[in-house]
Amino acid sequence: MKMNNLDIKRLNSSDTDFSQQLEQLLAWESVSDHAVHGAVVDIIERVRRQGDQALVELTATFDRYSVDSFSELAVSAERIAQALANIDADKRQALEKAAERVRSYHQHQQQDSWQYTEADGTVLGQKISPLDRVGLYVPGGKASYPSSVLMNAIPAKVAGVQEIIMVVPSPDGELNDMVLAAAAIAGVDTVFTIGGAQAIAALAYGTETVPKVDKIVGPGNIYVATAKRQVFGQVGLDMIAGPSEILVVCDGKTDPDWIAMDLFSQAEHDEDAQAILLSDSVEFLDAVQQSMDKLLPTMERSDIIRAAIEDRSALILVPSMQAATEITNIIAPEHLELSVEDPEAMLAEIRHAGAIFMGRYTAEALGDYCAGPNHVLPTSGTARFSSPLGVYDFQKRSSLIMCSAQGASELGKTASVLARGESLTAHARSAEYRIKLQ
Amino acid sequence: MKMNNLDIKRLNSSDTDFSQQLEQLLAWESVSDHAVHGAVVDIIERVRRQGDQALVELTATFDRYSVDSFSELAVSAERIAQALANIDADKRQALEKAAERVRSYHQHQQQDSWQYTEADGTVLGQKISPLDRVGLYVPGGKASYPSSVLMNAIPAKVAGVQEIIMVVPSPDGELNDMVLAAAAIAGVDTVFTIGGAQAIAALAYGTETVPKVDKIVGPGNIYVATAKRQVFGQVGLDMIAGPSEILVVCDGKTDPDWIAMDLFSQAEHDEDAQAILLSDSVEFLDAVQQSMDKLLPTMERSDIIRAAIEDRSALILVPSMQAATEITNIIAPEHLELSVEDPEAMLAEIRHAGAIFMGRYTAEALGDYCAGPNHVLPTSGTARFSSPLGVYDFQKRSSLIMCSAQGASELGKTASVLARGESLTAHARSAEYRIKLQ
């Protein structure tokens, strides 16, 4: 098959207007649509008012799946076990191996409660507790990814969450066996075949049958994302993700076909995905571009790849690998591939990235499925201030303060001065009651 | 002075409709005002377009403080040193003692990077990095609390944040010396006397003079809160707090005056504050109510206290201390005082609370100022899923993956099966390139 060559941007970081060009390349503002917002608010209200019945009606409308009563939207334990039996042995084995590695990595994220005792007997500390109940949203249809089920559910279980409620729409009644099998392997407790804003509303507020959760995680379309924003505060949320992106930094010594395919693996997600390559070798950038032109016609999702590569991607020439590091910290990429000889030396200079794939063998795709770390990562530069999804997202802390009589007396004096300085005299007097008279 | 007795709600958890009564008591929805939203969007646009000049104009309008150029809105190091010299010695000493205790507690929250090597040489890990630059919003005028400066800035500095930019409006040109002194003690790097939505916009997007930050923390009025929601994603945020609340659990053996004053210390914050007492002794509830009636006329902020106590507070009789624990977990209070004989035994049963004050001596007010733990805490039941402000809020994690040739080959096989199962063939092929041919 003959295709037009890819029209990919070529930038040079030594150009005087490079900063603006980079800013333009990275610009992304999610569209806030008033019509979507209005529809979502109505759906949430309807679910809060009519509970299960609203879910039955909205599922018939939006998912073209009609049932007589809500109980038919609950997936039985038998159906889930059946899914596990239905899938091919190699797929089941792959899911189990991935789950085991993800579990093992996330166990390293466990946090411990701690406390210490001061000289006067006052005890200070921090208690870690898991969330009680978590809701996991899984998109339906083609974007229904079993790997996402593992990546969202396993950290919650490692954190000690007692109950995970998964929701996954079944458009036209179709359910993905791989997704149910992943749910079984990850230890999901309950599954309902509902989706969209109505599923988010059910998880946030509860219905007769769907239990109210403390936090909702998982990706979804614009209706789901809008509904999540709307219920924030009522429940906790994971981040609301922008389009996926990769930044590859290469010293020019990795096989250009490998790098081209690594860029494609990001680009095939969707038309808004972004793939950027930084190298100090213009010959290497040329070679990767040739590899991309050569490989594109062999790709199943070549239309999506072309759109992402031509609209939002770039090959960038830098004067040195030091410059590559500086630009990396400006981009703060979701995925960073350091395809260089000594990635550990470079790591010391990297301040902002969601996940860092080090060395020529570490394809980003390994991290998407089975390396162990989470594939839910901060996008659009938010790695400057946020982290991969992890065990810490399913636990919270309580501060502990237990004053001895002596400790309360001493602290009371300080608190009294500061409280009176802020004109909060009830605070001051509450503290002063605990000051010992000499 | 003679005052009417307080009309405080008395509930009994054994009543059949107690759940509904409790739900009603706890109900809180923040008002979302379209006029405020529109004004805030305009202000943000104006600051993005006109930078410093917009800040000068908006400060003249909203803070009635006119300057010729933006440089006058930057607080000099000399002015900050002056504030430290201006304040009374006992206040300075109290601030320094509080800062030292807050710093010492938060140092226990330090997180370490970690990594481990698998049998085939593959390395997995997690790197902790501080945020580069943080913005701290401090309200002006009467709500300008030096203790908030300490509580927000110190954890950031302990986390390793290089630069803290503080903004504090100076209505009519008035600046609070205690606030500036606290900034000096906490290690704040730069101070601008700007406030409102315009200050949030400046921190989020940067101007000629105000550097763009990575995260904004600190309390503010409805304009500030709305602006924070609006810039979320561009920068990180701390939580947006609801009204402050306390839940006191008492076995009836603490001095009722102490408990009354502890409840008042919460109520004096503002009319929307909430103070709830749970006890298994009706005589003790009566005694506390009498203490409140006796003490109210002696309080400077008696009007605010009365409003908070009568509108949003309650004394609740429970059949047992076990029942008190269960209700505590439903309320998930911001502040929890366990004024009981054996608070440690009770602690084991507490799953949800922002900060837990244990024993009769540990007045909540001590935690507000100087015990050490943070006073920025999750409100309105959000302790079910969120934590006190801490060092962890000023750091983020990057996942590390460095595969050996052998590791990449093995992982590549699993990734390939799963990627093909999801029809993501560029992912599969990127992984397959790294599979060793036997």
UniProtKB/TrEMBL annotation, chains A, B:
GO terms of molecular function: histidinol dehydrogenase activity
Recorded family membership: Belongs to the histidinol dehydrogenase family.
Catalytic activity, EC: 1.1.1.23
Organism: Sinobacterium norvegicum
Gene: hisD
Stored Gene3D superfamilies: 1.20.5.1300, Nitrogenase molybdenum iron protein domain
Binding site for Zn(2+): 266, 269, 368, 427
Keywords, alphabetical: Amino-acid biosynthesis, Histidine biosynthesis, Metal-binding, NAD, Oxidoreductase, Zinc
The UniProt record lists the keyword Isomerase: no
Residues annotated for NAD(+) binding in this entry: 137, 198, 221
Lineage of the organism: Bacteria, Pseudomonadati, Pseudomonadota, Gammaproteobacteria, Cellvibrionales
Name by which UniProt lists this protein: Histidinol dehydrogenase
Cofactor binding description: Binds 1 zinc ion per subunit.
InterPro entries cross-referenced by the UniProt entry: Ald_DH/histidinol_DH, Histidinol_DH_monofunct, Hstdl_DH
